[in-house]
Amino acid sequence: RPRILLDCDPGHDDAIAILLAARHSELLGVTTVSGNAPLERTTRNALVTLQLAGLDVPVHAGAARPLVERARHAPDIHGASGLGGPELPELTRRAASEEAVRFIVDTVRAHGSQPHRDPTAPLWLVAVGPLTNVALALREAPDLAQRLAGIAIMGGGVGFGNRTMAAEFNIWADPEAAEVVFSSGATLIMCGLNLTHQFMIREADVARIRGLGNPVATFTADLLAFYARAYAEAFFTRPEGPLHDPCAVLAVTHPHLIRTEPRHVRIELRGEHTRGMTVVDERGVRSDLTPNVQVGYEIAREAALEVLCETLASYGA
Ligand code: BDR
Ligand code: CA
Fold first, then answer.
1. Where does the record place the Inosine/uridine-preferring nucleoside hydrolase domain (predicted)?
2. Residues 6+ apart with CB under 8 A from 250
3. Distance from Cα 42 to the centre of ligand 2, integer Å
4. pLDDT digits over 199-229, tens only?
């Protein structure tokens, strides 16, 4: 069982990532960042998700804005609250601190392997929002790169974006932070849009999840119904939504479900049309540069859906 620190901006798929990570890892903490919604909302949403599921995991709030640009959010996909759809219960919990970066640095130093990686006790950082907190932690403590088994990222992609033609939301929202992380020397797994768009949740899947009948499954079904509709409206597609963030959790907890290839990946910081793009050397044209990222190319969609349904069923047991 890996240990995980989950950095997120809930967000529908972030909430589901929390539910998965809590069941399939030792989840040491959840840190929040500005992204899908303002920090105050993403922190609330992380707390609400854990509260609903009866999970005792500390939440530490982090960066309220990206390193350089102003904060930008995604109400078109996630609603103004960041968790549009279900009726949210009254919050009875509070964040453990507003020092997510401090918490990440201290936890990795206390629990990560040093100075070399210890394969028997992997500690992973799973990052499924803009990479601001992760970059600040690595900048303060570059040794984290070697103490972590790795960082599994939902962000970027090979070939297409979703906020611009080239850029995916999490990288687009804080490209400078992404650059710090991608050049940190840490072991990186990138679950980008080319991968996550293979894990589509359709209406029949939402019905199956609703049929599980427990409150966490109902909450998830309400989230997914809203999310699939928002995707359909924003991108003129069928009512189905990609389960982006769960892919990054599964890359750590169920690595056999995801096929990756080593690639050299850089973050575009200056392009007129491409700022925030993950530039992937698909054909090794820069053979002088060593691969810095395990890029996800394929996910076993049906098996991943089974894991999700079994996990949600377990919250009723
Ligand atoms: C990413 O952006 C957010 O909307 C999702 O939570 C996911 O992390 C997909 O581009
Ligand atoms: Ca997210």
1. 4-304
2. 20, 257, 258, 299, 304, 307
3. 10
4. 999 999 999 999 999 999 999 999 999 999 9
| C-alpha to C-alpha distance for 229 and 226, rounded to whole angstroms | 5
The dihedral sign for the CA sequence 90, 96, 99, 102: negative
Is the ipTM, as predicted for this complex, more than 0.90? yes
Separation CA 161–CA 172 (nearest Å):
9
Rounded Cα–Cα distance for residues 198 and 46 (Å): 25
Residue from 170, 194, 243 to probe ligand 1 pocket by mutation (most atoms less than 8 Å from CB): 170
Confidence of residue 121 (pLDDT cuts 50, 70, 90): low
244 as an active site residue: the answer is yes
Q: Which residues surround ligand 2, an ion (CB under 5 A)?
A: 9, 11, 14, 128-129, 245
pTM value is 0.97
Three-class SS of residue 205? Answer: helix
Which residues, 6+ apart, have CB-to-CB distance to 239 below 8 Å? 202, 203, 228, 229, 231, 232
The rounded Å distance from CA 286 to ligand 2 centre is 31
Task: Give the pLDDT confidence of 166-188 residue by residue, as tens digits.
Answer: 999 999 999 999 999 999 999 99
